[in-house]
């Protein structure tokens, strides 16, 4: 018996103990945000390895870097959001913005956005201009005018002798470049490769050639009656007001918020003004064709509310959108969403509606938060064999890429399976550095640590390693986060000076530690009260423990966490106090 006591005493003496008083400042206790310029977000398709024990003198910052960096290394340069303030732009970018505004102003005056459906030549030209293969030559649409040109060329000398006044305009307008079927096919290819405006402007004279008016015909023209003449003159003289166009609830060229919208299109096209203008124009026309304004008010039910949802903010204030693909393991939900074309179209409209509603809540003022952080949970996600899901996802991604530029601040992939990392390794060389710098990857055991780098614990849902309950939004009570070293005992104290009800939430990510709580009165005559008897909490038990204790005298509540494992643990906790006078 004596030997057992000696052995127990020696073991307790060998276990280091750390005591933290709750009155310490948040700067001392909470992990400070990492330096964004030196931060390196992931993607390395390497499988995770077992975590090594910490060195005794390691700091918490070193722990964070070692944990993520060694397992799934991030890209060389982390994405840093560019400014949305015009005054802070470099001169070339500021000039590009002004040029785009001039093009947009001219288009609004010409009512180029009034067409609800994009004209066919413009749609094909826009699509083919971005493709990697050359389009097949199209057949001439109106062969009759080409035949007429050839006949006019043959008769030109005769017409020159018979009517010298009318022959000269005809030769300049139509016969300057004789057209053949082969030449016309070549012209079609060149027209497709040109801009949308060039295609549309060059197609009008070919379809409706303007005939010169001969002197004899002028005398025979029908005269308009006085009322008809007045009406025609009034219509010609009446000035056309510029078109009013809004996108995501922001009217273009009305205030400074429009500059933020235009900068998104410019950055999506590397500040190539014409490309950005055509992208903007096609987006506006697509929104009218898709019926976005009506779509926002449609009702689709609540079947997919757990598949995609908004929850909390990241440390920089960006709204966070969670995409939980594992929900489609539910066969009934999968069939109801993707089993036929009509259902896939409904899913697509629902997904666009969700994004539209989220975007309209963003702040488009210069310097405001106008981007979203996407968290993609790949746990139990359907594999590549789900053809219907791949088709719907591919179609949605194409629409989002073409019509919603620069709305993602960061893409965080969590619970990433090994095969996804292998695919990412193959496609990574084809992605731009800007795109890759927005990606962060984390395997199943690193999900909570990775999210905590970008999102505060009080904003992370409980299922992903935080303390935010389902349905919580907005400002919540701050969470204190502490790292417990391997084979160490950690104690947290809550001093209390008056009678009150003390409530707290505590969580050790991954648990597998011993946890206990007790109240220690300040007076020596009083007895210690056991609130929670020390017991080992396994990794599969409840993620968060909620405790409360009504205190009638001064003292302190002491939480004890004994980490007997060889791995470090993250401790999260927060507390609330409520005076007894408010309890009744």
From TrEMBL:
A Pfam family: GOLD_PATL1_C
Compositionally skewed regions (Basic and acidic residues) per UniProt: 91-112, 229-242
Keywords: Cell cycle, Cell division, Cytoplasm, Lipid-binding, Membrane, Transport
Region (Disordered): 1-185, 197-242
Locations listed in the record: Cytoplasm; Membrane
PROSITE patterns: CRAL_TRIO, GOLD
Gene Ontology CC: one annotated term: cytoplasm
Top-level division of the source organism's lineage: Eukaryota
Segments forming domain CRAL-TRIO: 297-472
Sequence similarity: Belongs to the patellin family.
Protein name as catalogued: Cellular retinaldehyde binding/alpha-tocopherol transport
Organism of origin: Parasponia andersonii (Sponia andersonii)
